[in-house]
Design goal:
This protein is mostly helical. The protein has three helices and no strands. It is 81% helix and 0% strand. Helix 1 runs antiparallel to helix 2.
Length: 91
């Protein structure tokens, strides 16, 4: 459990660092646009988009993990009911 907490803290720090990098990247993109540095702008836009995609994937994974911890089988969601039916279980 302590290892899980450490992993979560590392993920939060990573997310924070990525968020800062994305913000800085967007500012640089704007500067490149203003200075008519279109090649640099295009390259940086790809990098920023990749960082955004990565950040979103981490957030989605984190959400799934936290959701898995708090499944309420007394009040199943529609998704839980459908999943159980597909396995032959009647909730």
């Amino acid at each position: 459990q302590q290892q899980q907490q450490q992993q979560q803290q590392q993920q939060q720090q990573l997310l924070s660092n990525e968020e800062r990098d994305i913000i800085m990247g967007k500012r640089l993109i704007q500067m490149y646009q203003e200075r008519d540095m279109l090649e640099e702008k295009a390259q940086l836009e790809k990098s920023v988009q990749a960082a955004i995609t990565h950040r979103n994937a981490i957030a989605k994974q984190k959400k799934k993990q936290s959701h898995a911890k708090f499944l309420d089988f007394r009040n199943p969601t529609e998704e839980m009911v459908e999943s159980a039916k597909s396995m032959g279980v009647d909730l």
